[in-house]
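Record filed below.
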Amino acid sequence: KDMKKTIKRLLGYIGKNKYILITLLVIMLAVTVVDLLGPFFQQKAIDTITLDEDNLSIDFKKLSFYLAVMVITFACNAVLYLCQGLLSAKLSQATVFTMRADLFEKISRLPISYPDRHKHGDIMSRMTNDVEIVSNAVSQPITMLFSSVLTLVGALAFMIYYSWQLTLVAILTIPITITVSAKLGKFMRKYFVRRQKLLGALNGQVEEMVTSYKTVVAYGKEDEVVENFNGVSDKLRKNSISARVWGSVMGPIMNFLGNFQYVLIAAFGGVLILNRTKGITIGSIQAMLQYSKKFTHPINQIANQYSAILTALAGAERIFEIMDSENEVDEGKDKIDIDSITGAIEFENITFSYEEGSPVIKNLSLSVKAGQKVALVGATGSGKTTIVNLLTRFYELDSGRITIDGKDITKIPKDDLRHAIAIVLQDTVLFCDDLRTNIRYGNLDASEEAIRRAAETSRASEFIDRLPDGYDTELAESGSNLSQGQRQLLSIARAVLADPKILILDEATSSVDTRTEMNIQQAMLNLMKNRTSLVIAHRLSTIRDADVIVVLHDGEIAESGSHEELLALNGEYAKLYSNQFAGIET
């Protein structure tokens, strides 16, 4: 979209490793100089052989000297090329290390809405494929560009030194070369940009298939999934073929123009010798032919690597798109002492919409006293989880405000705010590590004793102690080697260890059996003592003992009160309760 801007930013990353870059540039300069001296010494060696009136004479002393110099030159060239390759690799990895770190840091600072609105596979593709493509470009095509410019300038200088007439002949093909490469480059660019987008979409489908595999199989949708995958893959195949074909066209055209230039110099050089033009010898013609090759070779190299450069720039642009996204807003400056928080929460006329014009929460006001247990109930989509997301500032309010102990949460740094709150989500998140580390996620400084005490409080210790490796048991991805209920118990243990001032339970017992639920309820009662608790539940039996039950309907509070009070009202709560326990003795 903006090649100049992308190149500038990419060069900025390369320039961050200035010592490696400066050393590499010096070596590349030395490589270019040594490489350009080769034809010069060859010319000198050839011109030690003279033919005058049918008499062949050879200055063996000079010939031996120039041959020795050539051997040393070629040996130095080989060593310098090796050093250049090593430094290029080092520069490449140092550059992408910084870029990858910045990208990962950026992803960790993005608002929650970003991964909600972008395919996870595409984000992963930018982190892996696009960064790797940039790495390959830095180690080869981009460093090659500098070498090519030096070679072009040096070769042109030597050509002028030998014969300005032949130099004019040589540069006749340059306008044609520039015109062709510019036209083809503009035409090719769209294919390489589209290829990276399709690759991201393909990775997104793979990621979706892996994470949703059980659902796909359960509904017998394997054929449809394969068909959709093949559809995107076929688009990628066709686009990649077009990109590769047009990328390959550039090289042959440049080679043809280079060979055409070679023929022109040979022909005109022959004419100059026949005309006994001053300063023109067999050796100088041979040197001119070599320098003309060196003059066109960088252009051919750039043409042959143009597709790789375009692919890298497309990848870099996709990386910079994420980096240019707005960070999660955090204007909070008023630091708080988390230990002094009492947990009084006020929702004052809050309104929120995920999409403009479609409010999910409508002018809602709710007062939660310190240490109070408040349950949020309502039909799916009524706004229960959204209220929690707004309290933790995963999303920002459209209007109104939320306060904790009278302080507007927008004034509190998000890090402080979220350290004061512990959340047990309906969808349990566990990491590929041992059980101990997963529980310790609630408090990284927790002792072994505290971890075991948290597991006992949450009743997680009952199944952990039965495992062969106990707390050292390694979890598979997302804890898939545990049952859903066991995963939920670990999540609760993590919240216990966090020892929060405000506790949020979002369907915390939705995935456990009735007996385990009863045990957890008792543990939760102990945990919720002297803590403000917001409990989201569909199982109304789990929140009968709540201080206040708030019934939400279409983003508004329909009614609130205790369990008995709400049943007596015979309103929304009574309907929910009777529907859930129809035919069951309560």
